[in-house]
């Protein structure tokens, strides 16, 4: 489209881009002290063979019409014109809407497709379904934080207040003496933030803190979960046992009278019940250091010494997303808060409790004075919902009741799912079961830039532009820069913006004005920018007009230094500034949660044995964590993502001693398997992982040798073939895909080339 560099932005950073032949030249934003290498994934993405170039319809659906079909994921596609595609989608939306109403339609999206605030896919698809069809069955929470986002409001406050407005990195650098990071502080996670991230500062702040003397302790099976700049300590526990470890630490603090009883009495409720549970007064089982040592794999003496070293220090306790993405994931999140409270730390500069520090670039940053407006999603005419990670349960069990956060709900019977901006075959668990679930639908409609596994299971695939091919505004509540996202290239093939697609469908459904409000894309951008001007003007802050902003490409916004505002005010005066909990205090015991009568999540935090544990058939823990070379599964075909693979396959890390016992050498093709399926990967031997654990990142595009197999073999390395699809507990029903158990062996079968990026027939 243009030969001069233009400003653009992604979830992992802002940049100038220039198209030169088939490649993009990327120059990171000059104000970023530590630019993300993920920018390299754009170099050859625009015209990659995996892109969807035309509207496509699955042959079985086109020939036989809507209905359940087990050929999904293993069928041919037929190219159609946009006019034909619009007609097919319109007719199907009318059919399902007339016959089943909004409760027969699921609006699926995950919102990560673009850093632009207008082309936010989740907002677009939800606005479309609300304004044209009267609503849809929605999902709540996220795969990343499904447990914590439900739990935290019961015990301390809204997750955004704890995570986004928690203790700041600046405070840590200045005041923290000990940072205990359950799940670590991996920079691969904090280099990404929804809406954009113009300044990657975590590495620098950790280095400042370490040089001042802050002691960082990363509690994780992986040494890489803490950067070298932190000069930290690595504490490796058995996966999933952090809750037991914290209970053991608390038992030592109680026994040696090292708890801050004055803080506990004034600022918390439920400490006596918690202490009674730890002492074993409830059931005769003391949760002491010796008890915890048996579960966690470290000595009782180590646990006791660890507890004593926390006393009298300015301690920050943070719990990563990873810990609550597992069975009983609510418990370590809750116990992290209890530990901070027992030490009397919440509300002290650089001390206390924060959730998910390091999990996203938003967390630990300062907030903007005002936020950039969002696209209104309209009013949903029905109140039918599922926790986001229960999609397979819903599609496989219509009418079945389920528990969620004190409510008894029923799975709706979904006939049509409309997906834009997401790839459930990346973030969901037990992919053979997910495929079976999608086969129950009458129709699956997907907007996609490329032939992901989700597109390959769809009935109608509408080619969408990628972020580089459209104009938008990039910004985040914790990023002091706002960016004009100017188009770098013309749309690939016949691809269209999601907004253009929805506008035409809304016109055919007679609801164009309700959807567009008379605005095209540029009209919405100008409208939102004018709203920002008004919000800032109320604070006597003036910014340039839209045209000047668009020309200069970047705008610096005023910020507030109000990290920890809720908990700081609470500590200063708990009566005048109570927490938004039923008691107004930190709830170590929650009468509300207790009233739900969930055995797997009672009224105070507990240790519950997971159903998944290593055994002779599956002796290894598998950690399925976030990748370092891409955001989730986005641009898996990009240069940087491919550079992290070996011969096109994902890399699995394991300890040399474990490898030796299985006759595995570095670089061998290995097979990871359990009752749900098989995965191939390239072996990487390293002592930076604890024994008995293997690590395979998520995000490799699902590439089954036989898509219809009940126990599929993914030759590319997608660990969600293996992970278990169950809720964390009856309270939150969050995703439990972080850890599972597997067997590992050197692969002896035929090694066929990865075909994930080759379009279907």
UniProtKB/TrEMBL annotation:
Against Pfam families, the record matches this protein to:
Molybdopterin (PF00384), Molybdopterin_N (PF18364), Molydop_binding (PF01568)
Q: Which UniProt keywords apply?
A: Metal-binding, Molybdenum, Oxidoreductase, Periplasm
Which species is the source of this protein? Answer: Pantoea leporis
> For the Molybdopterin oxidoreductase N-terminal domain, which residue ranges apply?
8-42
SUPFAM superfamilies with a match to the protein in the record: ADC-like (SSF50692), Formate dehydrogenase/DMSO reductase, domains 1-3 (SSF53706)
Query: TM spans, by residue?
Result: none
Protein name (database record):
Molybdopterin-dependent oxidoreductase
Give start and end of each Molybdopterin oxidoreductase domain. Answer: 51-507
